[in-house]
Amino acid sequence: MPAFGQLSRFGNRRLVRSLAVAGTGVAVVALPLFGATGASAATTAPTTTAASVTAYPDNLDGWIRESLSIMAQNGIPGSYESIHRNIMRESSGNPYAINNWDSNAAAGTPSKGLLQVIDPTFAAYHVPGTAFDPYDPVANITAACNYAADRYGSIDNVFGAY
Question: Is the dihedral of CA 64, 121, 19, 8 positive or negative?
């Protein structure tokens, strides 16, 4: 876990994603006021929000669970077990995995990330509310599951390279 005041590689995106996924309520982030002095530093009124933010761990389990939440909101089918099975086959859980040897790589578009998605497929099946980065774990899982749903009915129906 990062030390206080530090963020993991995906820390900023995870906060933004969590706020975006929280729903239609107003999200408020309180930031410290640097250089503020006197009463002006303490005159902010408390603010409440209607939506609660779910925090997910910054690991494979958390990425899959966050993706499943986004998938549910977007009507994309899939189960934890199937996503995990395919991730372990495709990348062994490494969000920075890249395939530089297959026919896609030879054509100049290597497969990337947890579920080994090529850039054109990622762009076509990207789900709004996730980062537009094929190495972002949640964006990669969600886009790959969106593609699998369109092509095979669900990631649950994928048992080999797709």
Answer: positive
Q: What angle do CA 162, 127, 108 make, to 5 degrees?
A: 50
H helix count then E strand count, the chain: 6, 2
pLDDT single digits (tens) 4-56: 344 444 554 444 444 444 444 444 444 444 444 444 444 445 454 556 788 99
Cα-Cα-Cα-Cα dihedral of 88, 90, 92, 98, to 10°?
-160
- Judged on CB neighbours under 10 Å (0-12, 13-18, 19+), 160 is exposed
pTM: 0.70
CA distances, 76 to each of 32, 67, 141 (Å): 38, 10, 11
- Give how far Cα 115 sits from Cα of 46, 85, 94, Å: 42, 10, 9
